[in-house]
Amino acid sequence: MIGALGGFFHGFLGEFGRYCLFTAEVARTIRRTRGNLKPILDQISQVSLRSLPTVAFAGVFVGAILVLQFYDMLRQYDAQIFLGGLNTSAVVREVGPLIISFLLAGKIGAYSAAELGTMRVTEQIDAIECLGTNPIQYLIVPRFIGIVISSMLLLVLGLMISVLGSMVVAEFACGLNFLQYLSTVPRFTSVGTLGAGLLKSGVYGLIVASVSCFYGYTATGGARGVGRAVTLAAIYTNLYILAANFAMSSILDNLGKLLP
User: Fold this and answer.
1) DSSP character at residue 35
2) How many CB atoms lie within 10 A of CB 48?
3) Structure pTM?
4) Most buried one in 30, 82, 165, 235, CB count within 10 A?
């Protein structure tokens, strides 16, 4: 048992180290790359349009579910007026970015890992290297930047849709009109809350881009290897997002206590 756990952690740390080295190489290549605007814009449009319906659908129900849960708890204390503030704060700060980023990991991350993995096992990336072109600069950088920007945009859009969906559900299911719902939002949702949500959106987008590109770019073993790369990309993206969420929540909460 102990040997199995030791082997797991040894393999995980090795995989994480390779991932960090790959991400550092991508960052260095981004600093040296110029003139990639068109490929980046193409990636942003493709990723955004492909994932927009999923994010919109998820955003509505994330807000709706939280409204019903908070309403049941607040009704016991006759404090339904606080529904809008509590729900908006939870959606923007924690639940919204986390759940929507999981969907993006499955939608964007899996697609990117499969695309790059197929190019790797069919030797297309090797052919690019033989032509004297840096494959990271040519293939990874546009996808990396495009996925990060698209993920942030989609997460922000998903949060806005979640808030609007929450207002509609509060109106028809809980009996709170829009003005009542919005009256306590400023009390619970400050500029710091919005900043925390945006920061988490950016970090989650960075994780989705880096993990999916890493596992797709390093795929080996033919079609089975591509499937394994897609599976690992989805698993590790979600694990890293959870770890990042815990770390950022702890840091931001402590900063909030220190600031006046």
Assistant:
1) S
2) 18
3) 0.86
4) 165
